[in-house]
């Protein structure tokens, strides 16, 4: 997905919640505003969404 929040390091913010995401800047046509996320379980997905909501609202 893409995060356009100027000057915001989403990767670092989520790492503070023990969630690691990946920049997609090495994919053709993408830059550091694009991220790759992978979750395995429904519980992990809920944890990711809760953390993402927290960092984007805070």
Can you describe what's shown?
The chain has 58 residues and is mainly alpha-helical. It has a single domain, classed as Aspartate Aminotransferase, domain 1 (Alpha-Beta Complex), CATH 3.90.1150.10. It is 38% helix and 7% strand. The protein is built from two helices and two strands. It has a two-stranded antiparallel ribbon. The longest helix has 16 residues, at 42-57. The chain starts with 9 loop residues before the first helix and ends with a helix. The mean pLDDT is 92.
Sequence of strands across the biggest β-sheet: 1-2
Summed over residues and divided by their number, the pLDDT gives a mean of 92
User: How large is the share of residues in beta strands?
Assistant: 5-15%
Number of strands: 2
Q: What is the H/E order? A: HEEH
Q: What is the CATH-assigned architecture?
A: Alpha-Beta Complex
Please identify the oligomeric state. single chain
What is the CATH superfamily? Answer: Aspartate Aminotransferase, domain 1
Q: How many H/I helical runs?
A: 2
Q: How many structural domains in the coordinates?
A: 1
Shape: globular
| Share of residues in helices | 25-40%
Biggest sheet character = 2 strands, antiparallel
- CATH fold name: Aspartate Aminotransferase, domain 1
Question: Which runs of at least 5 residues are low in confidence (pLDDT < 50)?
Answer: none
């Amino acid at each position: 997905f893409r995060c356009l929040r100027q000057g915001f390091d989403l990767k670092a913010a989520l790492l503070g919640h023990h969630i690691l995401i990946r920049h997609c800047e090495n994919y053709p046509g993408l830059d550091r505003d694009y991220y790759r996320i992978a979750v395995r379980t429904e519980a992990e997905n809920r944890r990711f969404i809760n953390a993402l909501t927290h960092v984007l609202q805070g």
